[in-house]
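Support request, please re-run this one:
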Amino acid sequence: MRNLFKLNLLLCCGAILFSSCKSSVSKNKSSLTGWNFNDPKYGNYIKGTAFQGQKPPDGMVAVEGGTFTMGQVQDDVMFDWNTTPRQMHVRSFYLDEAEVTNSEYLLYLQVTKDIFPPEDNRYKNIYTSALPDTLVWRSSLGNTDLLSENYLRHPAYSDYPVVGVSWLQAVQYCKWRTSAVNLKALIDKGVLTNVLENDTIRNYFDTDLYLEDPYRLFDGDSTVYKRGLPNNKRRKKGEARPAKGKFTGRHVTSQDGLLTQKFRLPTEAEWEYAAKAVVENREYNNVRGRKKYAWNGRYTRDKSTRYKGDQLANFKIRQGNYSGLAGWSEDGSDIPIKVKSYPPNAFGLYDMSGNVSEWVADVYRPAIDTEANDFNYFRGNVFTKKLIDSTGQVVIIGDGDRAPIVYDTLPNGKIVPVELPGGIKYVPVTKDDAFLRRNYTKSNNINKNDGDKNSTRFYDDEDDQFASRPRMYNSPQNSRDSISGRKNVYDPNKRFTLISNESRVHKGGSWMDREYWLDPSQRRYLPEYMSTSYIGFRCASDIVGALNYKKRLARNPSR
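Re-run finished. Output below.
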C-alpha cells in the first residue's frame, strides 16, 4: 500500500511537471503557425515575455482612468461659459506626485550644457534657450530682487517648484527626461556601458534613434554597447569565444517592454481628472456629492484637531495677505513653498490646488468639443512621420546639410532651436499619407471644428479664398523670423481676442491667486513662449495594457 501511494504521488508530480512545461512551451509558440518564438531553429523571431504591468516611473503615481464630469460643477459667478460641465473618459496614466523642482530642472540644465557646450558656435543658443526667466520675479513697485537672484539656484529653494519656464521649455524637458530615464535603464540592464562617467563620449541619447538604429548614436562608437540581451544563438563548432564584454546578444526593442513610455505634459482632461480625484467620493458606481477642490470638503481650512484653521493650500488669502499674521502663518509661505508641504489628494498627488499653476498640453479654446471626442480629449494634435532619405535611413538633425540645426526667433525675441541635434527629424504627414483615412485628414488638427474652414460659414471656399478671409480668432500674428534682422515691434492693430494656436492652457491656482482659482475646473491660457513667477509644470506618462492591474474587488461583497 505504501509503495502504491508513492507511485501515485510520483505520477501526480510528473503530471504537474509535464503540464507546467507544456504551458511554458505554449507561451513561446505561435498558436496559429506552430513556430517557436525566441528559438534559433525557427529564425529567432522575438515575442515579448509575459507582461504583468508597469512599474511606476520614479516620482510618479498611477492614476486609474475612468469617467468624470469635466468642467465647473459650482456656480459660474464670473459667467465665463468656458468651463461648462461635460462627461469625459480618461485612460489610466502616470503623473508626477509633485511639480518639477528647481533641483530637478537644474540637473537638466547641467546635462544640456555638458552635451551642447555654449562655447561651440553650433550650439551657442541651445543652453540659453533652456534657462528659466528669473526676471519674472521683478516688480515695478516691489522689492523682489532677492528672488530674481536666488530662487532658481540657491539651495534654500532647491525643493521649490521651478517657475519662469515657458510651455515650450516644459515640453523640451519632458523629451529630455524620456531619454535620460531610458539611458539609465539600458545601463542598469547591462546593454550599455556607463557613458555618464566617460568624458570622451558625448552623452546625448535619443530613445527613438536607439530603437531605429543604435549604432548611429554616440558618433557611431559601437564599443559603448556591452553583451546585450540574450539572443539564444549557439556558437558554431570551432568558433572562437568572443572577448569578455563584447556585444554578442541583441539590442532592446519595443517588444521587450523594458523602455519607459514617453514623458509629456498631461492633457487638460487628464490634469483635471487627477486633481478632482472623485474616487474618494465614489460609492459603488456612483459619485456622491461634488468636489470644489483637490481635497474633499467645501472649505480651504483644515478641520483636524492638530492643524485646525490652517489652510490646505498655498494661495493668496486676501488683498495684501499671502500667508497670515506673524506667529500664525496660515498657509506656510508667501511665495511658492517646498513641494509636498500639504496633504496629497486621493490619488496621492500633491499641490494640485495652489502653490503654482501648471502647464498642460492643450491649445486653448473657449469650448471643448465633446461631440467630436469624449475619450481622452486633447486639442493640439500635429501628426508627423520620420523623415527618410534616399538610402532608406532616417535623417538625423544636425547631420550635414540634409537636416541642419534650425533656430527660431520667438515673438519675445528669444532664440530657440526648432529641434535638438542628434534626434530623428520628423516632418508633418502629407495628404497622401492621410488619403482615404476616416480618423484624420491632415497633419495639423489644432483648429479642428474651431477655427478651421469647416467651422465657419465659409466652409465651401477654396483654400486660397478662405485664407484671405478674416480669422475667427483675431489674435496678433507674430512672424517667426530667422536670427538675423529681427526687430521687436508691438502689434499696432486693435484686437478682440488673444486666443491663437500658440495659446496654451494652465490649470490650478497659485501662491498669488485667490481662492476662486483653486477649483481644478478653472482654466486660463498664456502664449506658449511666455513664462511667469506663478506657473510651473509636472510630467505625465502613459500606462500600457490593462486599465488596472490590481485584482478587482467583488462588486457585491458579502455583508
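The first helix runs from residue 2 to 27. Residues 18-25 have pLDDT under 50 and may be disordered.
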